[in-house]
Amino acid sequence: MEVKLRDELELRNGKSPPRRAKMGPYPVYGANGVIGYATEHNANGPLIVIGRVGSYCGSVRFCDTDVWVTDNALICRAKNPDETRFWYYALQTCRLNEHRSGSGQPLLNQRTLHDLSVQTVAADDRVRIAGLLGALDDKIVANQRVVDAAETLMVAIVESITAYVALSELAVRSTRLVNPSDFDDVVANFSLPAFDDGGQPQVVAGASVKSAKFLLSAPCVLFAKLNPGRPRIWNVVGLPSQMALASTEFVVLSPVGIDTSALWSAVRQPEVSRILQQRVDGTSGSHQRIRPDELLDMPVRDVRRLSAGELQTITYLGELCHARRNDNVRLAGLRDTLLPPLISGELRL
Question: Can you give the residue ranges of the Type I restriction modification DNA specificity domain (predicted)?
Answer without folding.
Answer: 2-140
